[in-house]
Amino acid sequence: MRTVILVHGFWHGTWCWSPVTAQLAARGxxxxxxxxxxxxxxxxxxxxRWRRPxxxxxxxxxxxxxxxxxxxxxxxxxxxxxxxxxxGAPCVVVAHSMGGAVAxxxxxxxxxxxxxxxxxxxxxxxxxxxxxxxxxxPENAGEMVTRLIGADPAVVGALRVDAxxxxxxxxxxxxxxxxxxxxxxxxxLSPDGPAGITGEQLTVTRDRYGAVPHSYVVCAKDQVIPDxxxxxxxxxxxxxxxxxxxxxxxxxxxxxxxxxxGELAEAIAARW
Length: 272
Hints:
single chain, 272 residues, alpha/beta, Rossmann fold, six-stranded parallel β-sheet, two-stranded antiparallel sheet, 11 helices, 35% helix, globular
């Protein structure tokens, strides 16, 4: 029986998938969420995050303990997780946001472990363009993430978010999530997304990555990866794949695992 592997994006962890795992279980679909390197139980925090009184200057300049993580190194860890959980059998891998970059590299690394790759409003840097370079793309106009970054990634080696900007973080990631759940999620965010994941230019091939069946869940109200950029990723995936991308659209913002878990579970179960 295939297992669904759930991969989160930057600053999140396995916890964000809890409502979806329950919905998948109700549909008889087994699923396991995993932490990417540098996140969740694999997170490593800058000391300035916890120092009191809080020093914004130190927080903005302390080098991140996750600065050495790249898309390739995180992909190796993800491949090991998929192999362990699935016992070497192919799994349905679901990747959200920047987790899509890691899943893309993992699918090229070992396509035999993927029965299907589902992108959920995710980065899919398959064209040789680094994920970070999409930030300035015209399709990304209107995104709200860069205003949250509280340090120069070139200095600290991470995209560092101060969750103390609670209202701005809620508006960016969770504006269609009920306030209590959104506040709980904000409290669980880790501060550093490894810049090495966003900065690496990935190479994928038609024979390996391109042979993996895939689909994309477009979230129409996303303010992190706007709809036009999501659709650009779909076009670029199609250019290197053996079959066209199957697209599902949700009337959701960036975190459908919290705002629309049943609908997202349906979209995932359809690929199981």
